[in-house]
Specification:
alpha/beta; Rossmann fold; 2 domains
């Protein structure tokens, strides 16, 4: 990063209060650490209390600022309690990263075989959760006349695929919500953008592959990883750190007029 760009991005994030939902693992953990590295105060809003505490401790041991809050994004009251706790601790909320979601634990099956309970749960966490979180933090951002909301959608929020109807519907909806929030919050100095990652080889995705390949069969596991990689024209998985760098940039002053956009970071997958 050039000195000029670094001077634009990092100083504008110093001491910013950044809520990252689902930050106890995977790319959410990377986001929290990326913001802490940029000098921000990372709020680990995570359903799993132990994982939240572990990430918070990891950041603080490295010299960063972090605060863990147990949060269920499918529960409006839990979100309200999280926002209240953050405002009590810091007196402000500058950035919201809507990262929490359900994917790797879902069974792939035709849309007409998805149980209604599963359908509603996926939409509740992956779409209603970001809606509730954005609605909860917007008053603080409007008061400050500055704010950033980033919705972690998916390449599946831009294209279709079989046997993932609930997930794809939720992520398409999240891209649409991003555009509406961007328009309605524009006059308050608040931007809203979506990130649409392709395949990211996190521990959760690796576990999913291992489960299907019966873990002991290395050749099957390697073949599935290769197949997923081949779906992306660059023939490589996206690194969580690359997504983190894009998210940090979009939350800086350098991206003050970037809003209402959905950014693919997928090795060219959706461009095909």
């Amino acid at each position: 990063m050039s000195a000029e760009l670094q001077n634009v991005v990092f100083p504008s994030l110093k001491d910013r209060v950044v809520i990252v939902t689902g930050a106890g693992q995977g790319i959410g953990r990377v986001f929290a650490k990326s913001f802490a590295t940029a000098g921000a105060r990372a709020i680990i809003a995570e359903l799993n209390e132990k994982k939240a505490a572990a990430v918070s401790e990891e950041i603080m041991k490295a010299g960063g600022q972090a605060f863990a809050v147990t949060t269920d994004v499918a529960d409006e009251n839990s979100i309200a309690e999280m926002v209240e706790a953050v405002e009590d601790e810091y007196g402000r909320i500058d950035v919201l990263i809507n990262n929490a979601g359900i994917f790797s634990t879902l069974e792939m099956r035709p849309f007409d075989q998805i149980p209604l309970e599963e359908w509603e749960r996926v939409l509740r966490v992956n779409l209603t959760g970001p809606f509730l979180c954005a609605r909860a933090v917007l008053p603080a951002m409007r008061h400050a006349k500055w704010g950033r909301i980033i919705n972690i959608a998916s390449a599946h929020g831009l294209v279709a695929s079989v046997q993932k109807a609930a997930y794809i519907s939720a992520k398409h909806g999240l891209v649409g919500l991003t555009k509406v929030v961007a328009l309605e919050a524009a006059n308050a100095g608040v931007t809203c953008n979506a990130i649409c990652p392709g395949w990211v080889l996190t521990a959760l995705i690796q576990q999913q592959i291992d489960a299907r390949a019966k873990a002991s069969d290395k050749s099957v596991r390697d073949a599935e990883i290769a197949l997923l990689s081949e779906k992306q024209p660059m023939h490589q998985f996206t690194k969580p750190e690359s997504i983190g760098a894009l998210v940090v940039f979009l939350c800086s002053d350098a991206a003050a007029t970037i809003t209402g956009s959905a950014y693919s970071i997928d090795g060219g997958w959706v461009a095909q």
